Amino acid sequence: MNTAPVGLYSISVRGLHVPDLLAWAASHTIPFVHLRGGPRGVDLACQPASMIWRWRKAAAETVPITGVTADVDVADLLTGDAGTRRRAACDVAEIAETAAILGAGWVRLLARTPLTASDLHQGAGLPVLADSPIPLLIEPHHPGWVAPDTLRPFLDLVGSCPQLGLLADTAQLAAALPTSSEKAAWLGPVLDHARVLHLSDPGTGLDAAGHAVVAAAAADRIWAGQRLEVAVEWTGADRSPDECLTRYQQATAWWGRLATAYPQ
């Protein structure tokens, strides 16, 4: 397989403001950045328009911001009281609009709380999902999302809207595998809807249980022609620029060895 460029998720490094982060990435030939855009990151929705345009200019001069992550949970869009749903929808709309100005191609939504089939069916015609100016990628953050009674309605929701897709995180999906070396039946359908893959090292390395199973299945799809944007996510204790670069280089080498094993 002709290995695609591997970017970096901004959560992986601390102490750099956006223009400095982009310049640092460019100086180390990191080809693109995924930006943490919610309140736990750079809080895009609260930035003045002039700042967003300065960041866009910085990206044009260094490396692009290809995606933005929001902190909004899908559950807040589909369950709870009307006020919670309204605020969540407003937050998604605002960050999607700002991400588009930055030149990003998608916004990530979290999926921490598995929902019922009834809850998920409500999302099929939800304007904030169906009418987003850029694609919204849901990232499953709980093993319950791949339970038999949840997986099908979850994937049906994603498949019902052209603007929806999935972000596959190797650590999150590996945690849902039955064993460290066994590929579960749900993994293929999940990856079929994925548009982004995060090689996610929480501090235990990518050789920890399950990462290779998820990544190999993703590499198989890339080889078959599916477009998957790959980036490194380092969340260990030391996220200094030097340590982040070391972990990025280790992860890209690991991915390169795995990916170039195809075709099999």
What's a concise summary of this model?
By secondary structure, the protein is of the alpha/beta class.
Sheet having the most strands? 8 strands, parallel, barrel
Q: What pattern of helices and strands is seen along the backbone?
A: EHEHEHHEHHEHEHHEHEH
Percent range for β-strand residues: 15-25%
Average pLDDT figure: 94
Low-confidence stretches: none
Distance between the termini: 10 Å
Number of strands: 8
Shape: globular
Count of helical segments? 11
Strand order of the largest sheet: 1-2-3-4-5-6-7-8
> How much helical structure, as a percent, in the residues?
40-55%
C-alpha Rg (nearest Å): 18 Å
Q: Helices and strands: which structural class?
A: alpha/beta
Please describe what this structure looks like.
With 264 residues, the chain is α/β, with parallel strands linked by helices. It has helices at 18-27, 49-61, 74-78, 82-102, 117-121, 127-130, 148-160, 170-174, 187-192, 211-223, 241-259; strands at residues 6-9, 33-36, 65-73, 107-111, 136-140, 164-169, 194-201, 229-234. It contains 11 helices and 8 strands. Helix 1 (18-27) packs parallel to helix 2 (49-61). The longest helix has 21 residues, at 82-102. The chain starts with 5 loop residues before the first strand and ends in a 5-residue tail after the last helix.
